[in-house]
């Protein structure tokens, strides 16, 4: 007989302030040892569904639930607060949201202390989980000095240290470079087989996962299940061919740019230029200094080393909510005051934000937050834009629209820098690629040459993008 871990029967969920439900008439069951992917458009309620499985909702948001939810054969609402969480561990989409302590070791110890683990057992369990996750060298490192990808791995280690039966993952590879993402999936595959874990993951980039999952539960934009079926490997999204729009005038010159913080060199001296209408992708392994470079160019670290020949730049960072200043999505986009009402309406529609334009930007999904932040910078008409991981949390329709918006701005002569691990998006949009490794700039390359250099890509933890043949051939 199958051992049912989760069972939902005609479940609907609504936040207290919303008129319509986020999830409607959801029914499915997940058996012990299964690997299940939850997919669907950005903002469709996938993360909400995940939080119903770990009992974070409805108690932590005063949400309203109708229908039946059973976990390990018991009614979900019969569990005391926190009772289920040592058996069902969760890794959130934004790892920063679950850290409480300064160092990796202290975070792991804090997790065990909350489980009332005897002090005599804690040392061995911490050592063991750091060993199996390959994080032993980070044991005494401050979490906030780590890259987004490394934080994601630390968050996974904190989940595994509880010895759970179920692992819930919310877009676990969204902050990982392609090579590390493949390693993570392989490692997760081995871990699941060894410990017979049940794995449920919310994911957009299913093409990376190959045949990892057994089933796929597809959620529609109105919060319903459109399909619950055997998983089939996904094809990579193909983008239109973008024509080169680089103009001659140089808009940015960086000379001897470096970053040193408290005696630590985060970025070694480098020099580079950018031209009007140029799209520059910044790529490299997790922790190589990509976000540090963007912050340095924008003047957050060292403004005197960079000269702009245009207006100040616009910067969308990895955690977009740090940029929000208003209480609605519409007000956020209108805050700069440089776009007309018609331009704002067109931008909101193109970014698929119409249905949430009156929502608080802090309360929307992670993918929607990114689109709001990008929209705010586009509405402000900055001539030089820096986008840090803009594709994270985006479904295919949002990715295609983001491509079109960037392409349009480049045609107008704007310059766009993009930090990304999404090599397919990078190959579609980039004119040039800046490669970083260990805080050093390897070089700035014409993009088509990078995609054909397998050794260069591999040395920077990158994989050759699929579907780039057309552009490489046209360049040749």
From TrEMBL:
- Localization per Swiss-Prot or TrEMBL: Cell membrane
Lineage top rank: taxon: Bacteria
Domain (ABC transporter) ranges: 6-247, 241-463
Q: Which SMART domains does the record match to this protein? A: AAA
Chief location bin: membrane
Q: Name one GO molecular function term.
A: ATP binding
Q: Entry's InterPro entries? A: AAA+_ATPase (IPR003593), ABC_transporter-like_ATP-bd (IPR003439), ABC_transporter-like_CS (IPR017871), ABC_transpr_CbiO/EcfA_su (IPR015856), ECF_ABC_transporter_ATP-bd (IPR050095), P-loop_NTPase (IPR027417)
Q: Which Pfam families match?
A: ABC_tran
Alphabetized, the UniProt keywords read: ATP-binding, Cell membrane, Membrane, Nucleotide-binding, Translocase, Transport
- Topology versus the membrane, per the UniProt entry? Peripheral membrane protein
Q: Which family does it belong to?
A: Belongs to the ABC transporter superfamily.
Query: What's the protein called, per UniProt?
Result: ABC transporter ATP-binding protein
- Kindly list the organism's lineage: Bacteria, Bacillati, Bacillota, Bacilli, Bacillales
